[in-house]
Amino acid sequence: MAMELIPARPWDRLRRSVRQLTRALGPAMGLSTPALMRHPVWTTQAVEGGGTGVVVVPGFGGIDASMVVLRHWLRRRGYVPIGARLGLNLGCTDALVARLERRVEELVRRTGGPVVLLGHSRGGMLGRIVAVRRPDLVCGLAMFGSPVLDPLDARGLATHLLRVLVRLSAFGVRGLLEQDCLTGICRDTTVEGLAAPLRVPAVAIYSREDGVVGWRSCRDPEAEWVEVTSSHTGMGTDPVLYGALATRLARWVADRGGPGDYGPSSCTCPESVVS
């Protein structure tokens, strides 16, 4: 006997929406940070960074302060982490990539060798484009919750936010999300950079419970895949994600080349730098 498909009731849809909102707001409000700081990935004493520079890039609409927990963890492990200094991560991708590239160049000069790029969501996509353009500056790339296969693969409230930003841009509010970023030359440049082969080691971390972007779009074929179970905003304090980062970062540092070797697979940094 064939079973009839029962349409989802409004109450069920509301419960799902509330659940997604709760999962997103908790980490954003710092409620998941104490659990991370009690986890062995945080409490275990490990200093393997050797002064390696790391540029940490926030997600869409995010600021450097939103990634302060990750930068603190990196600093404790002997890395030299800095923010991307993109302000709000909004606006034209081309302009943001140019600014990020200059920031990477700055840290390369300070630390004496190629650096690691860590990016959340859109931050991972920007980092990927920089890694494609300047593999001589980058010795590793970590993207988490970054829909590189389809930059517009948004879910839930994110789709409404995109529409609002586009409408505000159409009314003359600059620096948000221009139509050119969705359908014009800027979009074409972005898609090309996200599809180009990578010449640096990379990891793409994704979650089927993301709730903001489609997880399939995060599985970059040029990168190693790691699946976690956190929400999109919860990735920044997910102990499993930190564990995955710790393993890859240590490997990239161990594989670095000798002094002055600025090839794509090197990550040469002095033992101490001015932070």
Give the termini separation.
Answer: 69 Å
Overall geometry comes to globular
- Multimeric status of the protein: single chain
Helix content range: 40-55%
What is the CATH domain class?
Alpha Beta
Proportion of residues in β-strands:
5-15%
State the gist of this model.
The protein is of the alpha/beta class.
Describe the secondary-structure layout:
Layout: H1 10-28, H2 33-38, H3 40-43, E1 53-57, H4 68-76, E2 80-83, H5 93-111, E3 115-120, H6 122-133, E4 138-144, H7 157-170, H8 180-183, H9 185-195, E5 202-207, E6 224-228, H10 239-254
Parallel strand pairs: 1-2, 1-3, 3-4, 4-5, 5-6
Helix pairs in contact: 5-6
How does this model look, in words?
This protein is of the alpha/beta class. The chain has a single domain, classed as Alpha/Beta hydrolase fold, catalytic domain (Rossmann fold, 3-Layer(aba) Sandwich), CATH 3.40.50.1820. The protein has helices at 10-28, 33-38, 40-43, 68-76, 93-111, 122-133, 157-170, 180-183, 185-195, 239-254, and strands spanning 53-57, 80-83, 115-120, 138-144, 202-207, 224-228. It has a 6-stranded parallel β-sheet with strand order 2-1-3-4-5-6, sandwiched between helices. The radius of gyration is 19 Å and the shape is globular. The termini are far apart.
Labels describing this entry:
275 residues; alpha/beta; Rossmann fold; disordered C terminus; six-stranded parallel sheet; 10 helices
